[in-house]
Amino acid sequence: MSDQQLSIMHESVVIETRREGIKIYYKIANPKTLQACLIIRIAMIDQMTRNMNFVIKV
User: DSSP alpha helices (H): ranges in the chain?
Assistant: First the structure.
């Protein structure tokens, strides 16, 4: 991920940062955001699998 993307997500309060010396650690601010991303990922995989099965049958 680029610094610009991380900066935008930080400003939007999607992620939180913690600095230790020269290192910066990032984490998702709201655990429900991660849950939502995982659900969307599963739905997309399901859809792609259905599409592949259709193509294989044709």
Answer: 3-11, 31-57
Task: Count how many domains the chain has.
Answer: 1
Closest CA to 27 of 37, 19, 35, 17: 17
Handedness of CA 28, 31, 37, 41 (dihedral sign): positive
Give the predicted TM-score (pTM) of the model: 0.58
pLDDT (tens digit, 9 = 90+) per residue, 13-51? 888 989 999 999 999 999 999 899 999 999 999 999 999
Specify the 3-state DSSP secondary structure of 38: helix
Amino acid residing at 31:
P
For residue 33, give its domain range: 3-57
